[in-house]
Amino acid sequence: MQRSISRPYGNHTYISCNKKLQGPEESYRHAKWRTDQSTMEGSTFHGIISREQADALLCTAEGSYLIRESQRQPGCYTLALRFGLQTLNYRLFYDGKHFVGEKRFESIHDLVTDGLITLYIENKAAEYIAKMTTNPIYEHVGYTSLLKEKVTRRLSRTKSESKRGHVSNGGSSSVEKITSLVRRAALTQNDNHCNYEKAHNFKVHTFRGPHWCEYCANFMWGLIAQGVRCSDCGLNVHKQCSKYVPNDCQPDLKRIKKVYSCDLTTLVKAHNTPRPMVVEMCIQEIESRGLKSEGLYRVSGFTEHIEDVKMAFDRDGDKTDLSSTTYPDINIIAGALKLYFRDLPIPVITYDTYSKFIEATKIASPDERLEAIHEALMLLPPAHFETLRYLMIHLKKVTQNEKENLMGAENLGIVFGPTLMRPPEENAMTSLNDMRHQKQVVQILIQNEDVLF
Questions:
Q1: Residue 16 pLDDT more than 60?
Q2: CA 63: distance to chain centroid?
């Protein structure tokens, strides 16, 4: 048995925001460490020893650690870590490349270092951490133009001093923090943005260099995965602070890579439009030259041409050319519109409201059925409601030309039912059984557009 003990960074400890060192057992397979002890950092592995033996080995130095194999469960490994004059034991998981939990570490050394950071700050600053979200700078950053002018002047002055070499590294980080807050303030005060509520799309992020939380203005600690970043607007916050950030995400166009397959609310807020430009532009083009086209929305355009329209929107946005010169067949434009709805990650009639619409169609009384449909509509997110309203007004116009295009409310319901609403669970049998109700939902929406919207 090897007797040496690893000591990360001597007896020093740092700060982290993640306490759990173990991950869900069912999610990962254990490493075959017997056959690959190089993964165990060499002298760190101590074989099959008891908790008491591990404690005796580690009691000499704070911050020391070792890895032992379980006596009761061979093939399972435990990290024994000395902290606060006691030995803490954590189950280890390995996915073949990383030691895993809420974070993923390439070495035991990194995992232990980040763990010590966490334990230290939670031991020494638990009360302070608990207070971090009670008075967040996010709510008091000062969205008035006066404050923004003050901060802008301060930034200009700081940058000038920096050029003359009078600003330290800490000052540079402060500039970064203030700049980020000014960006948030500018976005909040921009009246042109559609006033739709949107939750932030937070994802775990590893920051390079010092970083501050834009919610509580406190330091984001740790070696890796120090916090989360909104992939739509770039807001950087602690993981625990993300629970308190309001649903006020203002997506940045630089971060929106495509038009199709983009969340509906994200797209309209990024482009400052009440509804997706795809919907508006396609409908305007169809109404200008295609309302009397026979089989409108039922007849398919050429798939490759529809894909061309999709790529054009992803590439050119609202500058996309849909004219008859470029696409003489109106069914191509109609097909591109249907494809947009099918590609939405969350359908226009959302998963949350799907069952309410389906159940409403089963009500025998026409008046009560209409009332139930209206109640379900009120549960839609504003951007979804507005998009659906705009589409139903258009489809009503299509039915008014039924003599020429042969497309009544029932036919349009057959086409748009599965396009606008999908069951939450991907079950072929459920989809098949619900098709009749999906058709009926759209049919009711078209026929009662003036009442429901």
A1: no
A2: 36
